[in-house]
Amino acid sequence: MTADLHVEPRPARPWVTFAVALAALAIRVAPNTSHFLILKPQQVFSGQLWRLWTGHLVHFGSSHLFWNLAVFVVTGAWAETLAPRRTRFFLLLAPPFISIVLLVFAPGLLMYGGLSGIAVGTFVLLAWLRLGSEKSSRWFWRAALALLAAKIVIESFLSGPIFARISGQGIHDVPLAHIAGAVAATVAFGRRLRI
Amino acid sequence: MKTSLCIAIAVGLTVAVTGCLNLPRKAEKSSSVVAFLYPNQANYLPPTSIPVLHVPLHVGVAFVPSEALQGRGYYGTGGELSEMKKAELLERVAAQFRTRNFIADIQTVPSAYLRPGGGFENLDQVRGLLGVDVIVLVAYDQIQFTDQNYLSLSYWTIVGAYVFRGERNDTQTLMEAAVYDIPSRHLLFRAPGTSEVRGGSTPIDLSKMLRDNSADGFAKATDDLVGNLKTQLDQFKVRLKENPGEVQIQRAPGYTGAGEIGAPFAFGLALLAAGASLIRKRARS
Fold it and tell me: Which residues numbered 5-34 in A keep a CB inside 8 Å of some CB on B?
């Protein structure tokens, strides 16, 4: 009788991930807002602390936004469904953590935008969650983490301008944001790792 | 006696109402970049030095101070553009620059900072006060014409002046944004915007209609200006690349950073996932 009454808990809906993705899309559609939201160290130090969070939602082009969202939405929604509290905790605290790391360790940075630090974080968090729960697919997640590590190493050595916007000026990729995102995810996972 | 007095009053009123309406009807308000930058200068010499732009740029955007109003006719010109309206229009122009990564900041310069015929000396003062190196000067020229159509015949009845739209208004607006590098006095690029607004009104509502048409004309001309400005900004970037000698770019220390996942990593991940899925299917079968 009790077995009949047992109800499987409903998987959590990834509404925080979708809200973040929608916010990034909205900022792209209304580009005038990016001026007030992008991460600018000078403005943060003068008290505009919201930029620590919102800078990650600003993108420099549709392609930039598309690829960041492609990874963030899939990995974020999956992670939030598996571990909603942990993922939401990560989504709340990872943006300022990454921003502070950039402010401290990237002194030449005049401004920063892009969701990739968070996307890398949700990807790493998902990988830790899957590695900790499912043995059969461990090889896949190990390979995926190796791919990410290779990406970070390559972009660290090839950190030239990724978009040439104006003669003599470009936007540089910031691998440090990805490293900070991965560290934030590992801290949010908060368990002894078994790879 | 009484009847002839009534007729005299009616004729007097009719003449008063319609007589006024037959005065010439044209009103103009304008401001000129040339008159502001080169007052009393018939043959001006173009600057010879190459402009040096310090990227990211600090940009100001301002309305050129207007000249004396040139209205003719019985109605006024609707007055000068209000500061609130100017700020609103400037904000729309500024928005085109804010999205560009080579702009550090853009601020609207209040009209009080510029004086008619102030020239580059005035711009140097603004540069010192606000720290802007490049200025977007917005000038305008708006002419409003009013003609009468056949409905104006009804004004003879006096009541007709309240009911029939015998006034035809035509408002033509030209706006122009000229972008100058203040230190070198160089015009970097310019963009125009035009509009034409037509409308009809009763003589009683004429002033209001003209004010509305004026505001509408400015709004539409700004729409056009904003579109052209976007094109000109893009063309300016192309020009900088194709003719590096035209303008010298000096980058400020530091860089703009982007967090980018990138297509190769996303594709790599997708391939890995597809491979894993295939292996799992084979293992099951």
Answer: 31-32, 34
